[in-house]
Design a protein that fits this description.
The complex is a heterodimer. By secondary structure, chain A is an all-alpha fold. Chain A is 77% helix and 0% strand. Chain A is elongated and about 90 Å long. The N and C termini of chain A lie far apart (94 Å). Chain B is mostly helical. Chain B has a domain of 195 residues. Chain B is built from 20 helices and two strands. Chain B has a two-stranded antiparallel ribbon. In chain B, helix 1 runs antiparallel to helix 4, helix 2 packs parallel to helix 4 and helix 17 runs antiparallel to helix 18. The radius of gyration of chain B is 21 Å and the shape is globular. The chains are: A mainly alpha, B mainly alpha. The interface between A and B is medium-sized, with 31 and 26 residues.
């Protein structure tokens, strides 16, 4: 039991990060609904934030503030890096959601397979029209 | 003053100009973007001269010493990639005015140019920076703005293509972020040169291997290495013509640069290619990219999509050169970065002219175009010949070096792959040429594109011939870049 606790659960923060990562990744891959995909993407990114923040933690260290009596403190740099990555993540989600709004306006749906269906329908209609036009011109060309 | 801060200015000027674009009256935005693009191109050439005379340039942002502060570090490889990005940007932007007016909703044009400037900022930033986290941030700046650029086409499918690219691109960038985090956890540094040194002490740990894997996969998604390429055909097909040309010529090149930088500078050749499996995997994937990409290009109906699949194949050549791991191979890879930017730029710009006149880029629309738009089609043919690798064009030079590199290794089947890939390129380019020159259209009237679009197209097409005959500049840069990467530089 001891080795299990020591080797596996002492790094539980990484397990949480990996767990969240896989949930997010799986959601992005498996869902056809675009909003759900963005949610998955968010969870995926958040797991990386947690990974970074727990990397910066120093066992027994306090928050990185300048004050008397504090000698051991966590590394603040990963936190700062992740602040930037959070901003990037927010921008990505905002842009993704904005695109989804436009897609909904243009297609009337945000399900990937339905959008594919709409596109395919239009394509086949266009091909039919083109064929019909060509047939017509062919008939006109042939001398009666 | 300017010379001292040259490297930082390359990033800061387009960054500051982007919000200005939105603030100024809409008709000024194109003018401002043009001025900025040309200014940046001029500064890049200045930087190139500096690199040539002084060797590696190092710029400390805010005066903070590396490895604590962010360092911009420029050697022959960065300078070459920056030249590609700035050069293509400068050529493409005069073309953009009419093309954007035709393809992008009028009230969006200021935003379009702002996003273009941000993309330029991001791409230049990636190439110049010597800090891995800074690289991630610039990667996201360029990616976010390219999603916006792609979505700007009036056609609604552009939205879905941009969305798919956003999902894929974010996964790729996040993978890169995970890898960078793991490396930081092991070494406590983000500066590339410092990382390279400190990684040697800890390189045998599983964390570093995991970080390596995440970074390679993340960069491979970004550069659309087969089989992670599926976002690219849609993105390039439905984007506005200018954006297709700009991104095809620069964004994937910059991603290849990121991979080169990580594999050779940060991790080092010995670490990256210690296991033969990795090398053979890269060779296998690049061969698959060449063959599958070219074969898929043959069956496409839309010419833009055809060119996108051909890009998948061309990226295969670059990675093949990288994976051969000899001086000639790396020279071929970096040379192909340059030459492929020229040929794909010319081809996509020529298609943009056709899209302007015909409203679509289906192969059937090209009937009789050889007579109706002779100059545009001539540019397309030159770009196509360069893509095939006909002697006398730029494409031949890089393929020649690639074949030499495979020959030096004694890997004959790879030479066969290069030849087969070129033959497949003949087939798909011929399909377009056949329709354009040998099929008659009902409408015989000439409808050549306006001069402001014709000149940039012609410039890039002629550059294909020029750099096919006079190879000194790209070859010199590619050769010194390859020497730097392999660590045999003076």
């Amino acid at each position: 039991m001891d080795w299990l606790l020591k080797d596996w659960f002492s790094h539980y923060n990484y397990w949480i990060a990996i767990f969240l990562m896989m949930i997010g990744f799986y959601t992005v891959i498996s869902r056809g609904n675009m909003v759900k995909q963005i949610v998955g993407l968010n969870i995926f990114q958040t797991s990386v934030f947690i990974l970074y923040i727990s990397l910066g933690n120093v066992a027994g260290g306090s928050a990185p503030i300048v004050r008397e009596g504090i000698t051991l403190f966590s590394n603040p740099l990963p936190h700062v890096l992740i602040l930037t990555a959070i901003v990037v993540g927010v921008a990505t989600s905002a842009l993704g959601l904005a695109l989804i709004v436009r897609i909904k306006e243009a297609y009337g749906t945000i399900e990937e397979d339905e959008i594919r269906e709409v596109d395919r329908m239009r394509e086949s209609v266009e091909i039919h029209i083109e064929d019909a036009l060509q047939d017509k011109t062919l008939h006109e060309d042939t001398p009666r | 003053m300017i010379m001292d801060n040259l490297i930082a200015l390359l990033v800061i000027i387009p960054l500051l100009a982007a919000p200005l674009c939105l603030l100024l009256p809409a008709r000024w935005s194109w003018l401002l973007t043009t001025a900025v693009s040309w200014l940046v191109f001029g500064l890049t050439i200045l930087m190139l001269y500096q690199v040539d005379s002084q060797g590696i340039l190092s710029y400390h942002l805010g005066g903070w010493e590396p490895p604590w502060g962010i360092e911009y570090r420029v050697d022959a490889l960065n300078a070459l990639v920056a030249l590609i990005v700035a050069g293509i940007g400068a050529v493409v932007i005069p073309y953009a005015r009419l093309s954007v007016r035709a393809e992008v909703a009028a009230d969006n044009s200021a935003g379009f140019y702002a996003a273009y400037l941000l993309a330029l900022t991001g791409l230049l930033g990636i190439t110049l920076t010597g800090d891995v986290f800074n690289l991630f941030v610039f990667l996201e700046i360029s990616s976010l703005s390219s999603y916006i650029l792609i979505s700007q086409h009036r056609e609604r499918r552009a939205l879905v293509a941009a969305y798919q690219y956003l999902v894929m691109g974010t996964i790729g960038a996040t993978f890169l972020l995970i890898g960078i985090g793991l490396l930081y956890g092991m070494t406590g540094t983000l500066n590339m040169a410092d990382l390279a040194e400190r990684l040697q002490e800890v390189e045998q740990t599983r964390t570093v291997y995991t970080g390596f894997a995440f970074i390679v996969v993340g960069a491979s998604i970004k550069l659309a290495l087969f089989p992670l390429h599926w976002w690219m055909p849609n993105a390039y097909t439905y984007a506005p013509s200018v954006v297709s040309a700009f991104l095809a010529a620069t964004a994937t090149k910059v991603a290849v640069y990121v991979l080169l930088r990580f594999l050779f500078t940060v991790f080092g050749v010995e670490f990256s290619f210690r296991s033969e499996f990795f090398q053979s995997a890269l060779i296998f994937l690049s061969v698959a990219a060449v063959l599958v990409g070219s074969a898929l290009a043959i069956v496409q109906i839309n010419v833009k999509r055809l060119l996108a699949y051909s890009s998948v194949a061309q990226i295969g050549y670059m990675i093949l050169g990288l994976a051969l791991l000899n001086l000639l191979g790396l020279t071929a890879a970096t040379l192909h970065l340059f030459n492929h930017a020229l040929m794909k730029g010319a081809l996509f710009l020529a298609l943009g002219c056709i899209a302007l006149r015909m409203g679509a880029t289906e192969i059937s629309q090209l009937r009789g175009m050889g007579k109706r738009m002779p100059i545009t089609m001539a540019a397309f043919v030159i770009g196509g010949l360069s893509l095939i690798g006909v002697p006398g064009t730029a494409g031949f030079i890089s393929k020649w070096y690639l074949a030499l590199a495979a020959f030096e290794r004694g890997w004959w089947p790879l030479i066969l792959v290069i030849v087969v890939g070129s033959l497949l390129a003949v087939v798909y380019i011929w399909r377009v040429v056949e329709v354009a020159y040998f099929q008659e259209s009902e409408d015989q009237s000439r409808c050549e594109a306006p001069l402001s679009m014709l000149i940039p197209t012609a410039v890039l097409a002629l550059a294909n011939i020029y750099f096919g005959l006079d190879t000194r500049l790209p070859l010199y840069l590619a050769d010194s870049a390859a020497q730097l990467l392999l660590g045999s530089a003076p």
